[in-house]
Structure formats: structure tokens, C-alpha cells
Amino acid sequence: MPETSTLAHLDTVANAATDPGHEQPWAELGLKADEYARIREILGRRPTSSELAMYSVMWSEHCSYKSSKVHLKQFSELADQLAQEGRTGKLLAGIGENAGVIDIGQGYAVTFKVESHNHPSYVEPYQGAATGVGGIVRDILAMGARPVAVMDPLRFGPLDAPDTHRVLPGIVAGVGGYGNCLGLPNIGGEAVFDETYLGNPLVNALCVGVLRHEDLHLAKASGVGNQVILYGARTGGDGIGGVSVLASETFDSTGPAKRPSVQVGDPFMEKLLIECTLELFAAGIVAGIQDLGGAGLSCATSELASAGDGGMHVELDRVPLRDSSLAPEEILMSESQERMMAVVEPDDVAAFLAICEKWEVDATVIGEVTDGDRLQIDWHGERVVDVPPRSVAHDGPTYQRPFARPDSQDVLQADGAETLPPPSSADELRDTLLRLVASPNLCDKSWITDQYDRYVQGNTVLAQPSDSGMIRVDDDTNLGVAVSTDCNGRFALLDPYAGAQLALAESYRNVSTGGATPLAISDCLNFGSPEDPAVMWQFAEACRGLKDACLELGIPVTGGNVSLYNQTGETAILPTPVVAVLGVIEDVTRRTPTGFPAAGQQVLLLGETREELSGSEWAHVVHGHLGGTPPRVDLAAERGLSELLVEATGVLSSAHDLSDGGLAQALAESCLRNGVGVRVELAGDPFVELFSESAGRVLVTVDGPDDEERLFDLAAEHGVPITSLGQTRGDSLSVTGLFDVPLEELRTAWTVTLPAALA
Amino acid sequence: MKIGVVTFPGSLDDVDARRAVALGGAEPVALWHGDHDLRGVDAVVLPGGFSYGDYLRCGAIARFAPVMTEVVTAARGGMPVLGICNGFQILCESHLLPGALIRNDHRKFGCLDQRISIENNATAWTSAYAAGQELTIVLKNGEGSYVADQHTLDLLEGEGRVVARYAGANPNGSQRAIAGVTNEAGNVVGLMPHPEHAVEDLCGPGTDGLGFFASVVAALQAA
Fold first, then answer.
1. Residue A247 — pLDDT band, cuts 50, 70, 90?
2. Are residues A137 and A272 in the same domain?
3. A71 catalytically annotated
4. CB nearest to A183's CB, from B12, B111, B202
5. A718 touches chain B (CB under 8 A)
6. pLDDT confidence of A254, banded at 50, 70, 90?
7. Whether A168 and A264 share a structural domain
8. Which of A315, A342, A370 is the last residue of a domain?
9. What's the pLDDT tens digit per position in A711-758?
10. How far apart are CA B50 and CA B141, in angstroms?
11. What would the pLDDT profile of A493-532 be if each residue is shown by its tens digit?
12. Does residue A136 lie within any of the structural domains?
């Protein structure tokens, strides 16, 4: 029984009608005056405290995309246009669902999405990162898919900054601790260091899932009389954040005074939830499903109801609690992890509960689909919420934030790195190469990635440090998918339009180097404050750049996430539009590996090298410089290169994308992968050849003259420039006439950085 | 030839172990933790993972699962049983094997392509290898550091019950670099590294792990 004091203070719909002047803490909950007025207008009365809590969290930037949606609209239009023109495969579900779903043939579909968990990970690195993984995995699961892999693009402050030593080990342990315990291979990602992320690290999490076409499930509550079941973990006081302001305002509760606003994860519960949910899908007894993530029950009930054909009635006091002192507002807002909500036909409820019991997962019927058009929630028989669900889930405010190219952009772009002093001798070139391979952004990341299980499930064909992660989908046919995530934030600062396109181009190329055909993208758009017109301009330009590039490459954006307000004081992070590209490969046994496989192979460069050093790792590491314009984007060339790489599987014995650090870095990584040396001869200015970061280039090897001839033919066919560089041989990375670096010296330089800094 | 693979709540490498059993030439049978039933299998694999979230202590709760009563009885009767990673921890907790696995000395989860040497090729699970043969298989765990008291370690060494040892640098602080041990009869083997992740060239570091599964098939055929 609830305590009498709780019920006595209960703010019901009846109260709200009779006590219109009641002061409400809408400002403390982050609502603006006009937003509060709009809620009163929608309801024709003041909201109850429970309703106010629901609106405040669903209309937040995180849930409503109110600053970004005017720009995101073009991604939906893009998908429609590509589909109409017949340029893309079938999208079984697109933007607006928990995650986009793409047909990959043989009756299979894949779903993937990348999301941010930046701010929680700064406050509490381990739990913030862990629950970031947990959240994206539930999104994928809710589509009816078995999660098969995760990836984590990460951004940190400088490696030598004390706070990085607090944040990085916790985040890495959190990503590993949660993902490893779910049995999901972590097959790639990024770890990038830059000053601007010092007070605002980025933790983006990606998950890929696989399903049969017929297993697709959508988040909707339809069918009057269908039962609404909450299952998984019990609801506690974690992740409530601003809503406890409201609770403490409304109640003189004696409950816990301060609740942590970072959620705490239980990966074991999530693993049970995955297996239980997949068995429920297989039994064919799930009519609709939604995961509980940000905004918890407020989000799940309002989104399910507004996507269905009726209303929903919920008895909130039936929700199983970890903390019996929680008020209804807090239960509605709680972001306790590892919970799902399903809509189930009455005749299937017993079977549903039996499967949950088998997996020892709590499941409770908390409501049903009604024939009205309202979302109505009761607390011990008293109505505390009575709203049109769409008004909560979808009719939040839309802002036309002002945006403007800052005047400082011209100054920034005029200050190119091409005028900085280059290395002046062969010895300096050699030293530069060693200094760069040892720099935090280019060094060996295995201190991080060895904390992730990359083998579980037994289907990992490629994993970090390969250009992309690749997973076998079908043991018998060898159908597979490949995924890569990329973004160079420095390029995006210099030119957000081109920078976003370069992120896409790199990710697209990385998927292709393994031999997969790019099919779709998901993006995680990490930016500073949308209230700064210069940041909003970066955001708008990045969106426009992505959309234009997708149109030209013929691949849709199937979903993603926006994270704003990533800044410390007045300093925004580098604009970081992380782009994940997913590709399909019909036969994973034909994939092209990364790294020189053996001595005696021909080494060639595909693509064209220009003098492009602005925003490069060389300018960053050697000169601490950031200015100029980023490398040129040539999407037609990228597409030709991609088609060549896919067609040349079986001809190529290895392939490695050129990106950060240019050819020098690609040669070093290719040598170190299997301990195979190389001797190359450079035709042009060796500094430019080695350190320029021109896009659209891949280092490849072929075994023997027949394959080499075949590759030249294919390159001509696809209009891809091709240059012979030399041969794999010996125990050193050697540039004819300039320098020779023994592999052991190279390996030491490359591997020592992270362990030394983080020991 | 049927080999059972037990699924506990939180088992992760059960599907992989079943694939490895099939590649090794036997029929994999899924066993459920809550059943008092081994479904007529000839051998059992306890797979890797985080049974019961590894809460309390790795393997400490799984030990009390109904299926373990049957596994312990069958193991004492001579049935070949292989515990991999979490399965090794469960075998120790069940007192089928001596010693325990504690947190890695570097205090991190580690996933590596690890070299090990086969020290005892007379067990039901290692007969396909030569004594002293070096293999590369996957090692992945947070609590893989093998410990036992000096007397037990000496006993294990003296009776040849150290099945496998880490080659090269000790990856987790295991005493005497022990990667796997066996019981007196040689039918029960616990192994920290994961042979089931080295059974295909495509999805792991080669096929060095197949021999564990081929060994038990041969042992069962000979029996």
C-alpha cells in the first residue's frame, strides 16, 4: 500500500482541472515559458505533475531533436528519393524506427545504428560507456534482430592530460565490461585524442543486428484489448535527473534525497533480455515492441501508443520497483536499464509470461491498448495522466535556430599547413615517420581493443585494426556484412560540409577495402551548443554535405543520433559527424585482408596524391597547427575506387586505406600487421607522397604478374589512377634513396605510446 | 557420438562450442542448466561466458545448477568433461578440479591470440596433440589467473596434471603459467584459453583448437 502522505499529495487530472493556478517547476525541468504554455494549450488545463514530467523529458533536446530536426528532414527525403529512383536496395524500415533495416539478400536483413552517450560518460566513465552499449543493443533487439557485433568510436582529451587518465580507462573498461558480458564481438571503432574533447569526451556506440525478413518488428501498440507488458529489470531511481526536482517539489517524501542521474547497467540482465526477447519473437507472440532508453516509460508508452491505431491505458502502480518510495513522476522518468515493453494479444499473454519465466526475467502486465486516442495512466486508481500520446512523442517544439558562417572561418581557411616548413632531409623524413606512428592518434590501439572480446559468436572475419569489421551472417552461404566508422573532426572544423563528406568517404572506402559493397549509413552527429550560430552553421553544413554525398554515392541514411551541447564553457568540440557505413559481401571467404601477407608481393597505390597537408596529423603533431582547407572530395573517384576494390577481391592479396598519417602510416601498419617489410620508391616530392592526406587512396598488394596485370586492367576500367610503389621484402620499411626503418624499431615506436601513458 | 554443451544464464560461447563440436566430428547437443538431464550425451562441454553474471564469484552460482548434479556424477563415472574459461571456473567451484581462477594480475579483461604448449597429451581432450606441441588459440577473460596452494601445484606437476601452459610472457599472472589442468583420471579438463575460437581459418587465429574436439571423438570411439 502506498503511504497515505503520497496519495494525499497526488496531483491528479481532477486536481489539475480544479487548481489551475498551481505553481509548477517547469523551468527547473528545462522547459521554456512558451513550451509550458503550449502544453497547457494542448491539454486545455495545466498539466499534472506526472504529465509535466513526461512532456519535459520528451520535449528535451535529446528526445525531441528540436534544434536539429529541420536539418535532419533532408535525410528522410534523401531515402525516399533514392528509393524512388531505384538506386538503393529495399529499406524495410527507415528513419523514425528504433533503427533502420536493410535488405541484404538471401532472405536476410540487417539493422544498425550508432548513438552517443557522451555526457554520462564524462560524469561516470564506466557506467556511462557501459549503458551506452546497452542502450544501442536494445534498439537493435527491438527491431526483431539478433545483435551480432558492436563498435565504439571514442574521442578523448590529450593523452597526457590527467583527466584523460580518469576518463579513458573507465570508458574502455565500461565498453568492454558490458559488451563482453553480452557475448557481442567488438569489431572496430576509433580512439582519437584532441584538446577540445578534454572536458567532453565522446562515447559513440554502434550495434549491428541480423534478422530474417519475416521477423521484422515495429514499435507500435495496435489492436484494442492487447496487453501491454513491461519486462526485464525492475524500475529504480537511476537516471531520473531533473525530474527529481519535480518530485521533491511536489512531495515531502522521506526517500533518498539525491539520486544519481547516470544509469547503472547490469549486462547479465541484458543478456537474459536478449535471449528471452529472441525466443518471444520466434514464438510469434509479439505484436509490438519498444525498448526503454532515454525517458524510460514516458517514451515507451507515448511512442508505442502514438504509432498504433488506438489509445493506451496503464496502471502505473503495477510497475515492479526496486525502490518502493518512488513517486509516479519518477517512475515515468526513470531510465533504469535493461527494460523492454511489448504489446501482446490476450491469448498469448500466458505463453509470453512462461518464456520470461524460463529466462528468469520479470514480466508484468501493466496496461492495455484502448479504443480511444488518449494515453491514460492511473496511480492506485487515480488518473494522473490523460494526454494525446502524439503530443508527447512527436509534437514537441521545433526550433529554427539561427546559423551563420563565422567570420573567423576565412582566417582559419587562409592559414594553410602547406606553407609550414617540411622535413628538410632524409633523416628528418625518417624521424617524422617515427614521431607520427608514435603519436596518440596514430599509435597502436591494442591497449584499448584487447579489452574487448572480438571473437565471441565465432563469426568475426575482420576486426580492428583492419579497416572495417566484418561478420559472417550465414555459416552455409558465407554471406556477410562489413561496418566501419570514421570522422576526422579537424577536417570538419576547417570545412564542415567537406569534412562530413570526407568522413563518409573514408568509412565507405574502409568497407570497400575488405571487399564489401557499401549499402547504407548511420551517423552520430556530435556538435557543440546549438545556441551558438557558428556551431549551428557547422551542423547545418555537415548535414547538407552528408546528404549531397549520399545522393551522389546512392546510399541512404537509415538512422542515427544527434548529440549537441558538447562543449566546455565557450569552447565547442571539433565538429564530429561520425559516419558509419554498412556494406554487404556475398562470400566472406573472398574478403581482402589488411596488412602485407608475405614477402615478394607487388605493392601499389590506387588513387591520386595531391599536396594536401592542412588538417593532417603531420601539421597537428609536428606543428600543433590547424588551418587551411581539408583535402578535396571527389565522390565519383571514391565510387570508382570502391567498385574496383569489390571487383578485385581474389586479385588483391591485401588492401589498406590511406587516411590519417597518409602513405607513411599505411605502409607502417601494413608492415607491422604480419611483420613483413617493404621497399618502395617514391616518384614525386617524398614529403608530400608520404604525409599528404589526400582522400580516395588505398595501398594494395598483389601476388605475381598475372594478378598485377588484372589489377591494372580493372583500374583502367574504373578510371582509378594506379602507381607501382615497390615490393614486400625484408625486415624493414625502406624508401629507396632516403631511409630504412627496421621493423623492430618501428614496432617499438608504434606500440609503446598507450601502455606508457596509461600504465 | 553426441557431445552436450551446457547453456547457463549468461553463457556466451555455447553456440561457438557447438560449432566446434560439429567441426570436430561429433553431434552437438544443447543442454539446459535447469534440467536434471544430460540427454544421452557421451561427453560434456561447459562453455565460456559469464554464468549468472559472474556475480558473487565466477562459477560459484552455476555450480548449483540442476544440470551440474548430473555433470558431476557423470564426470566421476569417467565421462569426458571440458570446461572452457567460465566452464573451467565452474569445474573448480564444483571441486572436479583443484585450484581457482582469480582476477588477471594486470586487472584488465584481455583478448589475445595466445601461444600455449600442451604438457599432457594423455587426457581425453588432448590426445590428438604431441607432448610439448605449441598452439595458438584465443585467450579472453578478466579472471583467468590460476592459483592453488604450493602443495597442490606440486602435486599437479608431479602427477602430470598440468595439461597446458602459457608460452612466452605470462598473460595473466597464472601460477607456473598454468593454462589448463586435469583430474586424476584425465577425463575432466579445465582450460582457460578458448579452443572453440580456433577451429576455422576464417574466424580466428587458425585451426589449432580443433584437436581438443578431435581428441575426445577419438577417445570415445576407442572406448
1. very low
2. no
3. no
4. B12
5. no
6. very low
7. no
8. A370
9. 999 999 999 999 999 999 999 999 999 999 999 999 999 999 999 999
10. 10
11. 999 999 999 999 999 999 999 999 999 999 999 999 999 9
12. yes
Superfamily the domain B2-222 falls into: Class I glutamine amidotransferase (GATase) domain (3.40.50.880)
Residue A382 belongs to some domain of the structure: no
CB A596 within 8 A of CB A743: no
Residue A565 Cα, gap to closest chain B Cα (Å)? 32
Residues in B lying within 8 Å of A, measured between beta carbons: 9-10, 12-13, 15-16, 19-20, 48-50, 52-55, 108-112, 138, 140, 142, 194, 196-197, 199-200, 202-204
Nearest CA in chain A to B106: A759
C-beta atoms surrounding A127 within 10 Å: 24
| A173 part of contact set with chain B, CB < 8 Å | yes
Looking at the structure, tell me whether residues A140 and A51 fall in a common domain.
Answer: no
What amino acid is encoded at A237 in this protein? G
The whole-number pLDDT of residue A502 equals 98
In this structure, are residues B46 and B87 in contact, taking their beta carbons and an 8 Å threshold? Answer: yes
pLDDT in the model for residue A239: 74
Domain-embedded: residue A590: yes
Question: What are the average pLDDT values for consecutive 10-residue runs of chain B, which has 223 residues?
Answer: 97 97 97 97 98 93 97 98 98 98 96 98 97 98 97 98 97 98 98 98 96 97 88
- Number of domains within chain A: 2
**Residue B175 has what DSSP assignment?**
G
CA dist., res. A303 & res. A228, Å (int): 13
> A570 burial class (0-12, 13-18, 19+ CB within 10 angstroms)?
exposed
Structural contact between residues A214 and A462, judged by C-beta atoms closer than 8 angstroms: no
Terminal CA-to-CA distance of chain A, rounded, Å? Answer: 53
Is residue A48 one of the residues assigned to a domain? yes
The pLDDT value recorded for residue A1 is 40
User: Is-contact A399 A67, C-beta < 8 A?
Assistant: yes
pLDDT tens per residue, range A328-374: 999 999 999 999 999 999 999 999 999 999 999 999 999 999 999 99
Domain end: A370, A385, A415, which one? A370
- Is-contact A132 A120, C-beta < 8 A? yes
Q: pTM for this one? A: 0.95
Q: Measured between alpha carbons, how far is A94 from B178 in angstroms, rounded to an integer? A: 51
The residue type found at A13 is: V
The total number of residues written for chain B in this structure: 223
Residues A128 and A12 in one domain: no
- Clarify whether residues A121 and A155 are in a common domain: yes
| Closest-approach residue (CA) in chain A for B54 | A268
Give chain B positions within 8 Å (CB) of A271.
9-10, 12, 50
